[in-house]
Amino acid sequence: GHSTITPCNSGLQKLADAAVAGIEEAGGNAQIFGTPTISDGMAMGTEGMKYSLVSREVIADCIETCVQGQWMDGVLVVGGCDKNMPGGMMGILRANVPGIYVYGGTILPGYYKDQELNIVSVFEAVGQNAAGKLSDEDLKEIEKRAIPGTGSCGGMYTANTMSSAFEAMGMSLPYSSTMANPHDEKMNSAKESAQVLLEAIRKDLKPRDIVTREAIENAVAWLRDYRFDGLRLDAVHAIVDTSAVHILEHRKVVGCGQRCEISDELDRAVHADVSGRGPRLRDERQLLLFGVLDGHGRTLPAAASSGRTSTTGATASVATYAGRSRCCPIRSRAATTTAVASG
Predict the structure, then answer these.
(1) Per-residue confidence at 326, pLDDT binned at 50, 70, 90?
(2) Model confidence at 280, in pLDDT bands (50, 70, 90)?
(3) CA 220 from centroid of its chain's CA atoms
(4) What number of other Cβ atoms are within 10 A of residue 170's Cβ?
(5) Is 188 exposed, middle or buried (0-12, 13-18, 19+ CB in 10 A)?
(6) Separation of alpha carbons 25 and 5, rounded Å
């Protein structure tokens, strides 16, 4: 199941269905269970914020309980909001059975008077209206158009930064962190993620084999230079504590984020534009993820396919995925019980 509480989560069921199809086609037996979810954006300024951070632990508990309690062979987690992103990864690492994360995908931008809009556009419009710099009519139109459909908040906020970190860590498919929820490629990616998971199960490739010191440093290097703040740092700390990788002295976290700089154009882009505005931005992002980050760690798609490190494996996976073929071969096998957690 999934939640319709927010646009971030209301588009997850189709991805869970696609993952189930991928698991079954690859010879597995999929079982679906859900988790609660809280939206920071909607809880902000209310008593609800007392529940938001705690919900991350609840989500991790739910996944660990179902996977371990039912003795699942693997888990594919689908999530798209502030707390089911880190909470889902924490659950994967706690259970430490073969696992992969499928990001629910970013929302598409809204438009008003030839300007791109996202959730923050509404916050800014409220302030401008209060200051007498924006009419009531314009405020109403911005509010109506800023959230045009399903998907996570469109800027580089928590969901999109965490999904990028998961991809940099090697726990999601290449390109998957920039796909928009309404687009068919997101469902295709969820299905391919399920097929990669089945291969990881066959090879007994565990999450803690992937989430190593190098993987965490890659995630931090990406996050620190792109909207890195205390909220993301806290989430990475929680993931590190769960993965039993003991590296996070503060000076080390700061240091590993100094490897790269983000271009002004990428910094200004709505997240959907990173994948949708043409090859230059998309290639630029892949150069960032796989060119300047430490290439000695493993990525799940590459390791499940061949056991190679990300230096060669990730690049090959990107090329394979860009061609829309499977990331790894799938062989027929007796049914494997696999969980699909939809947050």
Answers:
(1) very low
(2) very low
(3) 14
(4) 29
(5) middle
(6) 31
pLDDT tens per residue, range 328-341:
222 222 344 556 66
CB within 8 A of 61, min separation 6: which ones? 91
Residue 159 burial (10 A CB sphere; 0-12, 13-18, 19+) = buried
pLDDT over 50 at 314, yes or no: no
What is the structure's pLDDT at 247? 44
User: In this structure, are strands 74-79 and 99-103 parallel, antiparallel, or unpaired?
Assistant: parallel
Amino acid at 100: I
HEC sequence for the chain: CCCCCCHHHHCCHHHHHHHHHHHHHCCEEEEEEECCCCCHHHHCCCCCHHHHHHHHHHHHHHHHHHHHHCCCCEEEEEECCCCHHHHHHHHHHHHCCCEEEEECCECCCEEECCEEECHHHHHHHHHHHHCCCCCHHHHHHHHHHCCCCCCECCCCCHHHHHHHHHHHHCCCCCCHHHCECCCHHHHHHHHHHHHHHHHHHHCCCCHHHHCCHHHHHHHHHHHHHCCCCHHHHHHHHHHHHHHCCCCCCHHHHHHCCCCCCCCHHHHHCCHHHHHHCCHHHHHHHHHHHHHHCCCCCCCHHHHHHCCCCHHHHHHHHHHHHHCCCCCCCCCCCCCEEEEEEEC
Could you tell me if 56 and 49 are in contact, meaning their C-beta atoms sit under 8 angstroms apart? no
Are the beta carbons of 102 and 189 closer than 8 angstroms? yes
The more confidently predicted of residues 163 and 41 is 163
Q: What pLDDT does residue 333 have?
A: 28
Length, in residues, of the chain = 343
Rounded to two decimals, the pTM is 0.80
Task: Name the one residue in this structure whose structure tokens are 């949708």.
Answer: 276
